[in-house]
Amino acid sequence: MISYVMFVFSILVYVTEAGEVAKAAYNPTDVFLINCGSTSETIDTGGRTWTPEQPKFMELNLENTSFFSDASHQDSGVPMVPYMTARIFRSNFTYSFAVSPGWKFLRLYFYPTLIHLYLGITCCPSNFTCSLSNTDFYAFKSFFSVTVNGFTLLRNFSGVNTYEPLEKYVIKEFVIPVKHTIHLTFMPCRHSSAFVNGLEIVSMPDRFYSKGGFDDYVREVGTVFSFEINNATALETVYRLNVGGRMIDDVEDTGMFRRWLSDDYLVSENSGIVPVVPGVKINYTEETPAYVAPEDVYVTSRSMGNGNNPIINLNFNSTWLLAVDAGFNYLVRLHFCETLAEVNGPGERVFTIFIENQVAEAKIDVIGLSGGSRNPMYLDFNTFVASNNINGERRDLRLELRPYIYDSPKYFDGILNGIEILKLNDSEGSLARPNLNSETLRDKSHVVVIILKSVGSAIGLVTIVVVLMLLMRHIKGKRNRQNNSVAIFKVLLKHYTYAEVKKITKSFSHKIGKGGFGTVYGGNLCDGRKVAIKILKDTKGNGEDFINEVASMSQTSHVNIVSLLGFCYEGSKRAIIYEFLENGSLDQFISRKKSLTMDVTTLYGITLGIARGLEYLHYGCKTRIVHFDIKPQNILLDGNLCPKVSDFGLAKLCEKRESIVSLMDARGTIGYIAPEVFSRIFGMLVLEMMGARNKEIVETTASDASSAYFPDWVYKDLENGEQTWIFGDEITREEREIAKKMILVSLWCIQPCPVDRPPMNRVVEMIEGSLDALETPPKPSMQISRGLVPDQSSSLPSFSHAEEVPEKASNL
């Protein structure tokens, strides 16, 4: 006992000395610490005082509705307070707490172990000691639900069926809006009881999780819109991680008693480093006050490392996989702070944030946004984790950081200091997902028995099956019609009138290109943004093709996909409004190469960006999009030479479950079809970027060009080590290896046999991977070289690259 008192005293001293910043940061208006089932005040290992339940918090009629108890034993690692006592409920029971208006943390503490239950008493909190008899209560066999002020927090919950099976006790943290009173209700399931060991209520700063990040903005991932969290929303804390740092206990927080765990969710520990910067002092700002996160969050971080070597860092990402319940929206809060002495100016370290394989923020410059070194900042994002309507389904929420190379920053690297992920309630006000357990299965089995008995005969079963099949077919047809309606009528983009389009383009005075579907004009929106507007040719019919294109593009969001800003659909007048890309198309870039620095890093970044964009179209977006018109004219470059895939007018939409795409009606420029489908032209495109096309033209001018097949001499030069036609002999060894890697990937992509060509996700892996992992693809025979073998999956004719007829380049 003496040692325990000394331990508590040491904790109190530590909190007094080290926790002053946390106390000064935020002083909560309401703090309730209730040690349920206790008879007196108790002090936890952090020095906080927990009080017993008081009559004003509890229902008036307590007789036979609840009982107090204590645990039969204490597992190692389980604190005494508040886990050694509990309140047991055998019917619905409500606690009520009068609090100030505003958002509150509500924390529920559970220790599902064998509990001695004291029976035969009137369970008034003023009389905890009178006990006529006792028995054992198996808390780990209990199943119950919990609601608060109309929100369902837990449903069919048991402390042992959480997703952290190694944890001996469970803390569930919620954020709830409150007007004046918190009504917290425990509802046991049938043939079961409910229990709780501790209750905690703590105030927080006004709109702490609803206003947005340090810029008062919640970015909705996958769209250009912001996301609103109103006062009718409840949240559940799923993760709160001190990235690159130690666990931060509740008393070390900034006054809200949050727990920050270490980040054990990084995909590979070898994919990042933890910089150590001693003696860092964080400069909190008005936008990021000291209560947002403790200093220990901002002084520790993870980065990719090798920041001054883009050749290495461009080959991998920093990735976290965090398991969450599917079918809910999530608030993802990310904390950043630059503390390294060598990173001390804006634009020196810039990176891209991906959430759920979509661009959450294309360009993050921490110092540029926060205003200086050691200034903390935090950003809020909303993302929806889709469900397949499978009961009990969980999915990994994917968070990635990738270097942003297009501004040529000093360090090709990313940094992250902290992660918070909170689940938002669904449309029914629920944060809960039914857990699969023996009680649930028993209930389901009981229902099945009743149904079988009611049917009574095999004929009846057959009849029901037939009726169900017909009903499902009807529902499926109705759903398909509804999906079509959504695609046509619910395009979440600005709808411009033709008169507005005419005004934006100044009566179509600035023509910047012409493509297969119409003419492209430059213009300016009313806010000054430059746009490119594609005026489609007059078409007959109801415009279904156009609407389908707009609908599919409105669901895409990726740094390497051109952004659709609006559309015009007015009778036969149809137009699409895109972002304007300063450097035009890739073919224009290639033709201007003499006036630009064609370094390996630039071409490598463009190649990787194109591959990532195509990978996203094929696998990442909501509807699989196979682009049938991939060519240099349809790859656009922004001011930082970031490539963006454009022109989805020839895209073919396929369900994600389909693995074979019919190409009988495929349209597009022959020779630039996506590698998964049947073509080799991603590889041809990359080889052309590197100057192989120009060398081919020069070297075959004086010979029979029809007898020369492009890769024949590419293989020969590769064998002789002369693979860098455009770079000359002055490139470094690392750059030469990168160039060779791009050539090898290209040669794999142009293999005559379709099954030998890698899909786009594999192409991205090959480009990002090491040269040592790549084998030289087999050299096609001369017979194949002179007459390319068409894919068996298509009726399209064979072709050679030299037969291409170039179109006039356009911005779109």
Describe this structure in words.
Helix content is 24%, strand content 25%. The protein is of the alpha+beta class. It is elongated, with a radius of gyration of 32 Å. The chain starts with a helix and ends in a 26-residue tail after the last helix. A hairpin with a 5-residue loop joins strand 30 and strand 31. It contains 17 helices and 37 strands. Residues 1-22, 118-133, 436-455, 477-491, 650-672, 695-708 and 782-810 have low confidence and may be disordered. The longest helix is centred in the middle third of the chain and has 32 residues, at 458-489. The relative contact order is 0.07. Helix 11 (600-620) packs parallel to helix 15 and helix 12 packs antiparallel against helix 15 (733-749). The strands form 9 sheets. Strands 1, 7, 12, 15, 16, 17, 18, 21, 24 and 27 form a 10-stranded mixed sheet that branches. A 6-stranded mixed sheet has the order 28-32-33-31-30-29, with helices on both faces. It has 4 domains: 21-203, Sandwich (Jelly Rolls), CATH 2.60.120.430; 218-424, Galactose-binding lectin (Jelly Rolls), CATH 2.60.120.430; 494-580, Phosphorylase Kinase, domain 1 (2-Layer Sandwich); 583-812, Transferase(Phosphotransferase) domain 1 (Transferase(Phosphotransferase), domain 1).
CATH architecture of the largest domain: Orthogonal Bundle
**What overall form do the CA principal axes indicate?**
elongated
Strand content: 25-35%
- Rg: 32 Å
Regions with pLDDT < 50 over 5+ consecutive residues?
1-22, 118-133, 436-455, 477-491, 650-672, 695-708, 782-810
User: Which quaternary structure do these chains form?
Assistant: single chain
Distance between the termini: 77 Å
Q: Total number of helical segments?
A: 17
- The total domain count is 4
Structural class: alpha+beta
For the biggest sheet, the summary is:
10 strands, mixed
Number of strands: 37
Mean pLDDT: 75
CATH topology of the largest domain: Transferase(Phosphotransferase), domain 1
Helix content: 10-25%
- What is the level 1 CATH name of the largest domain? Mainly Alpha
CATH homologous superfamily (4th level) name of the largest domain: Transferase(Phosphotransferase) domain 1
GO cellular component, one term: membrane
Subcellular location: Membrane
GO molecular function, one term: protein serine/threonine kinase activity
Binding site for ATP: 534
